[in-house]
Amino acid sequence: MSATPNPPSALDLLHRVFGYAAFRGPQAEIVDHVAGGGDALVLMPTGGGKSLCFQIPALLRPGVGIVVSPLIALMQDQVDTLREAGVRAAFLNSTLDFAAVVETEKALFAGALDLLYVAPERLLTERFLNLLDRLNVAGKLALFAIDEAHCVSQWGHDFRPEYIQLSVLHERYPAVPRIALTATADDLTRREILARLGLEEARVFISSFDRPNIRYTVVERDNPRRQLLDFLAGHAGEAGIVYCLSRKKVDETAAWLVEQGIAALPYHAGLDTATRTKHQQRFLREEGIVMVATIAFGMGIDKPDVRFVAHLDLPKSLEAYYQETGRAGRDGEPAEAWMTYGLNDVVIHRQRIDESEAGEEQKRIERGKLDALLAWCETAECRRTRLLAYFAEAREGRCGNCDTCLEPPEMWDGTVAAQKAMSAALRTGQRFGAGHLIDLLRGKTSERMQQLGHDALPTFGVGADLDEAGWRSVFRQLLAAGLLHADAQAYGALKLTEAARPVLKGETALSLRRQRKAKKSAPAGRWSRQGPSAPADADPALFAALRAWRAEQARAQGKPAYVILNDKTLHELAAHRPASPEALLETHGIGAAKAERYGAELLALIAATC
Ligand code: ADP
Ligand code: ZN
Questions:
Q1: Would you state the pLDDT for residue 354?
Q2: Residues 193 and 45 placed together within one structural domain of the fold
Q3: For residues 422 and 503, what is the distance between their CA atoms, to the nearest angstrom?
């Protein structure tokens, strides 16, 4: 920002540069604290708005703000987004050639930068530290922001050895404020960050980890492809991620979706680097791409307008689920986390743990995590409340934005059904899986049934009152509740556990969730890449015209669409139809620079489209 007679306030900058109406949650307090020279540790969920917490203080303080980030693939987009808002930003990482580096360094010394993004390995070079020394002497270091600060943790997935050496910033520039930021909430990581970065004196800001704009839904799997297609029909033309457990399933699902006319791409560690990069790039740059992926895809996916994350297989734990679904809806607009879940998931995951090479202690921990996830899948309570409770965050009541809130499941007394299921397992020597036991209960005879003499057992046919899906639901819930155990050594044979005894003896009752009747799939809305439906309050013709205009801009400038204007901005433009430059500036995400650059075109477009 060029110097003005009256220094702008944080709120001025929020309006004028970023085009936002108000600070969110603790942002205002954090900005104040850091702009005043204090150190901070900021724990905020993905999409919470961490960037403004260092961007605005950097603009308020004299000199340049240095942002350390390991995600070099994102720097270009981050810098483009800032430049679109009129902020003087640049980056330094290994993707730049020498000439570009020299030019950026020159700008740095000319005082022509407000923010400089830099990779940690670059920051730690003698050359760069010498640059910082000179800026420091001149009083031109506004602050250090250490993004993805959990990378200092040796126990985490994203450990970066260079991050530990970032303590040098504290030693070398004790007077420059530092702000560390992460979306990783656990207490151990938090303490590691404080200790390793020498931030013991820093103020810690902890936000709620709720993602209110994400709707959680878990459906019982019957025909997963049909179910996925129906789900996608509600997201026509929108970008999203479909997670599968195996590479093979990723390839097959992506190919099948393409046959259905959906712009799907596969991503997993078995693809060569060039293909992976190409697919990731297309996902980031183009609109409406569905990425079908293993969990190899995710780290550093900063795309703000991912509208859904679908799981075709159960993730490993609630931590993994929260992280994977968290990639949806960073821009705060409505987004969906959707998962299909079935009996097989329970059996496969239990076997995976039993058969793993891990020590007993590790297996015990993993079993505990799986149990928590299964209980969450089967819960009749609010999913959001239960999810946050798992992360030790208390939340009252129902959220109204998850499947169990929107359509509370019916509960029934499943004691007798459970007893029948368990006695079927007992009578057959605990040597069979759910499929055979269900046939037995339903009185479905076959050659094998007769050979085994199972059609002569007293339990044969006692369960004709429930259909097959109903029985699968019972077995799944018994497995999830730990009353039955799938024995990996015996090909997944179901065995009773100690916990089954009181139910079997009738000492405790068992309440079960009623299996939902599979919905007759709505005549599948054609999935089209061009047209996500306009939000209810928006003018559909205008919304479509704005999207087309944005796509054209993005193409012409070679930038992702969201860098030009984000979804929420389009939504507000199509809903409020601003008719003057002043009204335009009231729109979310339109600050002075964007108004100047695009204002006339947007106003003309709005006036022309009724
Ligand atoms: P994080 O880094 O915490 O994941 P970002 O800083 O990328 O989140 O912000 C997420 C989204 O929220 C961005 O699209 C950003 O523009 C928007 N945002 C952040 N703060 C505000 C605010 N105060 N008002 C409106 N939108 C905001
Ligand atoms: Zn809820």
A1: 87
A2: yes
A3: 9
Identify the bridge partners of residue 91 per DSSP, sorted by sequence position: 117
569 touches ligand 1 (CB under 6 Å): no
| pLDDT at residue 300, rounded to an integer | 67
How do beta strands 141-146 and 511-513 pair?
Answer: unpaired
Determine the structural domain holding residue 189 and report its residue range: 10-206
Q: For residue range 440-451, list pLDDT tens digits in order.
A: 999 999 999 999
| Segment 457-488, tens digit of pLDDT | 999 999 999 999 899 999 989 988 889 988 87
Atom number of ligand 1 nearest to Cα 568: 14
Q: Is residue 139 domain-shared with residue 265, that is, in the same domain? A: no
Q: Is 198 left (phi over 0), alpha (psi -120 to 50) or beta?
A: left
Is 69 a residue whose pLDDT tops 90? yes
Q: Is the CB of 55 under 6 A from ligand 1?
A: no
Q: Does residue 563 share a domain with residue 434?
A: no
> Any idea which ligand is nearest the CA of 18?
1
List Cβ neighbours of 390 (8 Å cut-off, separation of 6 or more): 318, 372, 376
Domain count, the chain: 4
Pocket of ligand 1 contains residue 331 by CB under 6 Å:
yes
- Both 451 and 465 in one domain: the answer is yes
Q: Which range is least confidently modeled, 2-6, 118-122, 144-148, 271-275?
A: 2-6
Give the residue ranges of DSSP H helices in 197-327: 224-233, 247-259, 273-285, 318-325
Q: Is 329 in the pocket of ligand 1 (CB under 6 A)?
A: no
Whole-angstrom distance, CA of residue 559 vs CA of residue 406:
38
Which one of the ligands is nearest to 383 CA?
2
